[in-house]
Amino acid sequence: MRGSENDELSEKAYKPYLTNRSLSLFHDSILHANEMNMRPHLDNKQQYEYLLNTLRKRNRFSKAKWKKHEPSASVEMIMEYFGYGRAKAEQAMRVLTYDQLIMFESALDKGGKG
Q1: Residue 86 and residue 71: Cα distance in Å, rounded?
Q2: With b meaning 16 or more CB within 10 Å and e meaning fewer, what string describes 37-67?
Q3: Among the listed residues 59, 92, 63, the one whose alpha carbon sits nearest the alpha carbon of residue 77
Q4: pLDDT digits (tens, 9 = 90+) for 68-111
Q5: Is residue 45 part of a domain?
Q6: pLDDT in tens, 30-82
Q7: Claim to verify: residue 55 and residue 77 sit in the same structural domain
Q8: Is 89 exposed, middle or buried (0-12, 13-18, 19+ CB in 10 A)?
Q9: Domain range for residue 90?
Q10: Which residues have a Cβ under 8 Å from the Cβ of 89 and sit 6 or more positions away?
Q11: CA contacts within 13 A on the Cβ side of 7
């Protein structure tokens, strides 16, 4: 934000929510991110300056923590069969047997190629 060609545009493009969310994944910056979450009335530049001047430089790239959930075919099938949401279907998956899953799959079979 400081020293760029267009400081106002840089300030508008800054997203405090995303910055605070990513900083909350690390033990040395979680308290600072929480401080900014408790002060949403501050403008973007003030939040940026606070974080810039309080946090030490460090590689904070953590690919594993942002990984998206891969949907399971069995969970998708349970969602369709019972009309459950994802969380409830994952709970049901823990108690269902393999034979029950085969029965649900045959009940949902619509025919055709595949």
Answers
A1: 9
A2: eeeeeeebeebbeebeeeeeeeeeeeeeeee
A3: 92
A4: 667 788 999 999 999 999 999 999 999 999 999 999 999 998 87
A5: yes
A6: 999 999 999 999 988 899 899 989 999 888 766 555 556 677 889 999 999 99
A7: no
A8: buried
A9: 73-108
A10: 75, 76, 78, 79, 82
A11: 5
Query: How many CB atoms sit inside 10 A of residue 16's CB?
Result: 19
**Are residues 36 and 79 both part of a single domain?**
no
Provide the number of structural domains found in the chain: 2
* The three-state (H, E, C) secondary structure of the chain, written as one string: CCCCCCHHHHHHHCCHHHHHHHHCCCCCCHHHHHHHHCCCCCCHHHHHHHHHHHCCCCCCCCCHHHCCCCCCHHHHHHHHHHCCCHHHHHHHHHHCCHHHHHHHHHHHCCCCCC
44 contact partners, CB below 8 Å, separation of at least 6: 1, 11, 12, 14, 16
Q: Flag whether 114 is in a domain.
A: no
> How far is 67 from 35, CA to CA, in rounded Å?
26
- Residue 113 covered by a domain: no
